[in-house]
């Protein structure tokens, strides 16, 4: 499951986290996902979800941009993970390029399923939130994430999810859909 938390809004806003949090948690728990990717969450939102999702753990938080990956720790094991910035300097925290207005990231985690035969089945989750203002930043960010995915062993399944902030008919949308 992927879920854009859209940050927290002022308390008097109809979109404040206080007014949305129970509904968000209810939707998530009703589906009980093995993996939950969140975008645009701030620490208080992520902590609230962590408390409300017993049995779930979350990927180490390596940035202030918060593209977290929650997972069912009884069913999968986190093997390794990291974050890269969607910029010309992907290893530089907070870096921006291509007309981005805010730093954007991709968080990735390799998981291994527990209790399955044959043992050792692994897969990777890549979770992102791409710039919503700059078409060039969206195109280049999608390409950078794809380059990361393409560098993996072909036998490793990958789920690429997040907030892409684009339309299917755009250049970026067609690229992401392989068209």
Tell me what you see in this structure:
The structure is a single chain. By secondary structure, the protein is an alpha/beta fold. 26% of the residues lie in helices and 27% in strands. The protein is built from 4 helices and 8 strands. It has helices at residues 17-31, 43-52, 135-150, 171-176, and strands at residues 2-4, 35-39, 56-58, 69-72, 76-85, 105-113, 122-129, 158-163. The strands form 2 sheets. Strands 1-2-4-3 form a 4-stranded mixed beta sheet, with no helix packed on it. Strands 5-6-7-8 form a 4-stranded mixed beta sheet, with no helix packed on it. It is globular. The mean pLDDT is 90. This is Endonuclease/exonuclease/phosphatase domain-containing protein.
């Amino acid at each position: 499951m992927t879920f854009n938390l859209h940050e927290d809004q002022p308390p008097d806003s109809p979109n404040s986290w206080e007014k949305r949090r129970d509904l968000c948690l209810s939707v998530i728990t009703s589906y009980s996902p093995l993996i939950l990717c969140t975008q645009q969450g701030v620490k208080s939102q992520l902590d609230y979800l962590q408390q409300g999702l017993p049995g779930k753990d979350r990927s180490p938080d390596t940035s202030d941009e918060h593209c977290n990956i929650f997972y069912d720790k009884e069913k999968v094991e986190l093997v390794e993970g990291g974050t890269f910035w969607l910029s010309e300097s992907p290893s530089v925290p907070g870096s921006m390029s291509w007309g981005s207005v805010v730093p954007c990231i991709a968080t990735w985690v390799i998981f291994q399923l527990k209790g399955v035969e044959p043992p050792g089945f692994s897969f990777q989750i890549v979770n992102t939130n791409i710039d919503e203002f700059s078409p060039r930043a969206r195109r280049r960010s999608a390409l950078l994430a794809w380059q990361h995915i393409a560098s993996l062993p072909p036998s490793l399944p990958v789920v690429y999810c997040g907030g892409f902030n684009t339309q299917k008919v755009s250049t970026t949308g067609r690229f992401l859909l392989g068209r």
